[in-house]
Amino acid sequence: MKYLGVLALSLVVASCSPNNPNDTEQSVQAAAVTGDFNTSHMANMGFKVESATPSEIAGLYQVLTDQGLVYASADGQFIVSGRIFDITGEAPVNVSDEILNAMRISDLANYADTVIEFKADNEQHVIHVFTDSTCGYCRQLHERMDGYLDKGITVRYLAWPRSGMQGRAAMELQSVWCAEDPKAALTAVKNDQALPPANCENPVAEHLALGHKFGVRGTPAIVLESGRMLPGYLPPEPLLAKIENDQ
């Protein structure tokens, strides 16, 4: 899939390469949920449109895709990458982040059966963490697991191999998710212990795609209960403060 690089708030003309049958099928399917919005130009660019609804700005649609949130002209010929702020109140409100947060909450619910969960006995909060077995900061987070659990923070892991599906991390994470005891297996690989090769259906590729949609650019990436995403590692105490301030 081709990822479209666009500068914030810059206008881009969608390419007009010929449709292939899959693009046409995706466009027809998307039309059923997006009304009159023309998805064909975005399909040609490699986007899979999930929904398109009018935004707060007249003539501009907010479009949720498999690559995240973009804005588009009503005819689907121009797209804008950036954030919309409502400045009518005492402080600016990031309307785009509210949309993204709601999208993350909804999507994570669909992956509830595929996470590796470390559950706090006195659960007060739940976070989702995109992790990579070869990431040093991910290992630091995992080493402090007891600290998160003691503070009532349940940790649900999703796989996000930074080097893609052909790298070492992807192979390791597939083995983790296929293991008889995934929690023990994840701890093992984060301590450089080898696991048998994976031989089962696993969600690693789906988690990787989900992370791209969410805007993950590195690991660990922490998604709070509100849907807000925090990039990078935070020890238990600062993370708890972030969570409580987010409510």
TrEMBL record:
Database matches in PANTHER family: THIOL:DISULFIDE INTERCHANGE PROTEIN DSBC (PTHR35272:SF3), THIOL:DISULFIDE INTERCHANGE PROTEIN DSBC-RELATED (PTHR35272)
Classification via Pfam families: DsbC_N, Thioredoxin_2
NCBIfam families associated with the record: PRK10877.1
Residue ranges annotated for the Disulphide bond isomerase DsbC/G N-terminal domain, each copy included: 46-90
Keywords: Disulfide bond, Isomerase, Periplasm, Redox-active center, Signal
Provenance organism: Pseudidiomarina donghaiensis
Compartment annotation: Periplasm
Protein family: Belongs to the thioredoxin family. DsbC subfamily.
Presence of keyword Disulfide bond: yes
Protein name: Thiol:disulfide interchange protein
